[in-house]
Amino acid sequence: MSSVRRRVRRPWLPLLVPALLALRPAWAAAPAAPFAPATVVLLVRHAEKAPGAGDVPLSAEGEARARALVEVGRVAGVQAIITTQYARTRSTGAPLAAALHLTPEIIPAQADVPSHAAAVSEAIRRNHQGRT
């Protein structure tokens, strides 16, 4: 049995592409805007704190962990550091800040955690957009 291919005529095909182009939304015709640089956030909980209550300093282990954070921050390209007002958070970021010649931005901790997270997020968007 022989196979015979018949050519199907599609007289409408040359009209399809111009019709689709005419129907596309206006935003599809606009050139794409360049991407904004990514904002990278490294979230670090304070290092180990000394025993006690209140605003206690870091323990010896915590100080060692804070010093180890320097290499991580250097490799990651950290350009900004945000801490709370507490000694343990400031001491965790201090070695990295010193190594990179940065002044940490202090955003006071709040009892309302969602409000504190919102304040940190706003500071990142306002002051550190497109940075690490």
Morphology: elongated
The computed structural class is mainly alpha
Question: Helix and strand succession?
Answer: HHHEHEH
Distance between the termini: 70 Å
Q: What is the helix content? A: 40-55%
Computed CA radius of gyration, to the nearest angstrom: 28 Å
Main sheet: strand order: 1-2
* Strand count: 2
Q: What is the overall number of helices?
A: 5
Report on the architecture of this protein:
The radius of gyration is 28 Å and the shape is elongated. The model has no long low-confidence stretch (mean pLDDT 85). 11% of the residues are buried. The chain starts with 12 loop residues before the first helix and ends in a 5-residue tail after the last helix. The chain has a two-stranded parallel ribbon with strand order 1-2. It contains five helices and two strands. Helix content is 46%, strand content 3%. Helix 4 (87-100) links the parallel strand 1 and strand 2 (105-106). It is mainly α and 132 residues long.
Summarize the structure.
The chain has 132 residues and is mainly α. It has helices at residues 13-23, 26-29, 60-76, 87-100, 113-127, and strands at residues 82-83, 105-106.
